[in-house]
Amino acid sequence: MSREGYKMTELGEIPQEWNICRVFDIRDKSDKYSFTGGPFGSNLKSCDYTEDGIRVIQLQNIGDGYFSDQYKIYTSQRKADELLSCNIYPGEIILAKMADPVARACIIPNNENRYLMCSDGIRLKIDNNECDNRYIMYSINSEYFRRSAIANSTGSTRLRIGLNELKNLQLIIPPLKEQQKIADILSTVDQQIEQTDALIEKTKELKKGLMQRLLTKGIGHIEFRDTELGRIPKGWEVVPLGKVCTVRSEKYTPSQDEDRQYVALEHIEQETGRLLGIGKSSETSSLKAIFKEGDVLFGKLRPYLKKYYLADFEGVCATEILPIMVNDKCLSKFLFYIVQQEKFINFTVQGSFGTKMPRTSWGEIKEYLIALPSIQEQKDITDVLYMVDTNLEQYQEKKKNLLLVKSGLMDKLLTGRVRVKI
């Protein structure tokens, strides 16, 4: 039995004056291409790409509620005209047929007058007299809609949903003014997330520049000398990495009778140096490497993924991770910043072996040349970089909390569990 003012539907209990509609029902019926997919792969090939012209929207551009502007390819105006039914315009919604996640959606920005969709894009031009495009975009990215999209998808390794399946999925539709108010609230949170993202990117660039300077020029030096690494402060040494650290050799065979904290590659977040979680050694069976507090863990498998972590506890790790321990000539934190440098990552990538699953080795890494200051100056340098890292973590934590707020609001507002005042 429903609460007063509510009714029971196939999507659960919703307000009495709200409706359930198929995606196909909210399209702009005056435009015959208002709900359509991208071109067949044979109709848009790599040879059709140009340096400028009409921008092609790729899967990478379709974010979960945001448009990613990083990936840019173009085709000629002639090709875009030839595929007119697959054109999409600013303010319209584009959905992704392919995960991850499947059926995610964003709004097309007004950076260009028009765009051409990739083969796995779906254009949705809504009836603006009935729906707010921001509200519909948020609804498509909601938890209830995504569950339906996943249930109607195919594929084992990567989910995919077809146009016919997607058009019959259902959305919860309140009156237009209520849609607009809900979208305004969620857009306000999105703006805060975007501002926090900008601070994160700015801080990352600051850290990158500081690392490049501090790890080669130090702090306050006026006298320099020429070396194979370029000009470095007088008093600094040029040494191979193997002179100041080595890989810990102790191994561990997991048993059901003992549990140790276990770190695998999937536990390390790319490029941040943060742990996403910790496993248990008793849940694994293969040989593991032992690491101690203060060791730098570096992922040797596909090193371009930039997986590194400065251990603040003792445990075991997958053998695809190198537990690197320093000697008395180098601080752990100093080494940790060394392995984060783009120059170091490129060195490990170039020295990798294997095509499908390239991996580097300690034999290769230990030959990497570094500029080595005194222990005291290493501390001074890492103190500066640590302050930047602290700021970065605060911004990342703020973004995490904002995303939680947004998720909670979407769950309540898009289902009518909490009503907004009009």
Question: What attributes does this structure have?
Answer:
422 residues; Adenine-n6-DNA-methyltransferase TaqI, Chain A, domain 2; 5-stranded mixed sheet; 9 helices
Structure in words:
The protein is of the alpha+beta class. Among the domains are: 19-173, Adenine-n6-DNA-methyltransferase TaqI, Chain A, domain 2; 237-372, Adenine-n6-DNA-methyltransferase TaqI, Chain A, domain 2 (Alpha-Beta Complex). The chain is built from 9 helices and 26 strands. The strands form 8 sheets. It has a 5-stranded mixed sheet. Strands 18-21-24-19-20 form a 5-stranded mixed sheet, with no helix packed on it. A hairpin with a 2-residue loop joins β1 and β2. The radius of gyration is 27 Å and the shape is elongated. The model has no long low-confidence stretch (mean pLDDT 94).
